[in-house]
């Protein structure tokens, strides 16, 4: 009987090592190579891809398995030592089993999986996938997912949001590609900007109202030329009395190309669209591009008076992706 329990003791330490190492391998393995391998039809890569496509649920599987193994090691150790020293079995087990579990169940496997994540994860993929599916069948993953979902709602964490999951996965793929050294510095810069822009609001990139260069609706040709000399802008917002009542915008070059007798800011003024300050930069950029808008006003979100707080241009939004562009 003691021999059987001793074998189980060693088996559960190995089981703990398997789950601990898999946790490290999950974060260390190249997502790019896994995707490429899966697309080429290799079964082990397909198994691994199925696992990493459910990162949150895979963590539930790994942590549950590791905790079961740890508890089983503790039980086996206590049983063995109770056969010889029943009065101090728990104390002896703590002193003897804990270091063994720490070294062979945590440190060694994590080090191995960190140094060789891909080959070890490929070998571990099938048994890990079987356990993952088993925990799914018996409801373990569902149970922890519900608990996790409760706390996400409690603390207003939107990790279940489809958009969040997609952008998060894209960011991880980009990061993995960068780590592999496949991209130039310019490509890395654009990718970093692409990742960051998904979180930006219009209020973070707009030109604030006090910095807006604008022109009065009754301004003359000479005044417009003076503004043009000082500021290299193509389009200027137009106001009637002050910057709180901007009514539209004019294209300076189109206006100045007209005969002096036809010069009229009011007659050349174009309608200007308004966006809320809390709108996402990426959605505003898409809308401006689709509707041919080069310039727009920004109003304070939630303001009943529709108070203007800034201005955005398609150029400014594009620069969030590409970096500095020439004025236009």
UniProtKB/TrEMBL annotation:
Start and end residues of each CNNM transmembrane domain: 1-135
Entry keyword set: CBS domain, Membrane, Repeat, Transmembrane, Transmembrane helix
The keyword Ribosomal protein belongs to this UniProt entry's keyword annotation: no
InterPro entries on file: CBS_dom (IPR000644), CBS_dom_sf (IPR046342), CNNM (IPR002550)
GO CC list: plasma membrane
The CBS domain, residue ranges: 206-265
Pfam families attached to this UniProt entry: CBS, CNNM
Protein name from the UniProt record: Gliding motility-associated protein GldE
Originating species: Sedimentisphaera salicampi
Origin organism lineage: Bacteria, Pseudomonadati, Planctomycetota, Phycisphaerae, Sedimentisphaerales
């Amino acid at each position: 009987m003691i021999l059987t329990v001793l074998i189980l003791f060693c088996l559960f330490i190995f089981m703990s090592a398997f789950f601990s190492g898999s946790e490290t391998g999950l974060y260390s393995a190249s997502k790019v190579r896994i995707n490429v391998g899966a697309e080429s039809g290799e079964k082990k890569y397909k198994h691994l891809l199925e696992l990493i496509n459910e990162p949150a649920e895979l963590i539930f599987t790994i942590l549950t398995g590791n905790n079961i193994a740890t508890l089983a090691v503790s039980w086996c150790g206590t049983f063995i030592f109770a056969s010889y020293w029943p009065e101090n079995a728990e104390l002896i087990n703590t002193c003897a089993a804990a270091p063994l579990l720490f070294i062979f169940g945590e440190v060694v496997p994590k080090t191995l999986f960190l140094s060789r994540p891909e080959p070890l994860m490929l070998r571990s993929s099938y048994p890990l996938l079987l356990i993952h599916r088993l925990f799914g069948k018996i409801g373990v993953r569902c149970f922890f997912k519900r608990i996790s979902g409760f706390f996400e709602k409690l603390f207003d964490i939107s990790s279940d949001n489809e958009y969040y999951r997609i952008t998060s996965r894209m960011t991880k793929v980009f990061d993995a590609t960068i780590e592999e050294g496949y991209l130039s510095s310019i490509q890395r810069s654009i990718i970093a900007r692409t990742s960051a822009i998904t979180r930006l609001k219009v209020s973070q990139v707009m030109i604030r109202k006090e910095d807006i260069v604008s022109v009065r609706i009754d301004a003359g040709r000479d005044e417009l030329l003076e503004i043009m000399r000082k500021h290299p802008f193509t389009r200027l917002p137009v106001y009637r009395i002050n910057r709180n009542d901007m009514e539209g915008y004019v294209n300076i070059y189109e206006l100045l190309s007209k005969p002096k007798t036809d010069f009229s800011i009011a007659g050349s003024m174009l309608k200007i669209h308004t966006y809320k300050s809390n709108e996402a930069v990426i959605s505003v950029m898409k809308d401006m591009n689709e509707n041919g808008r080069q310039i727009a006003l920004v109003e304070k979100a939630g303001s009943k008076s529709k108070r203007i707080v800034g201005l955005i241009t398609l150029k400014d939004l594009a620069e969030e992706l590409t970096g500095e562009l020439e004025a236009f």
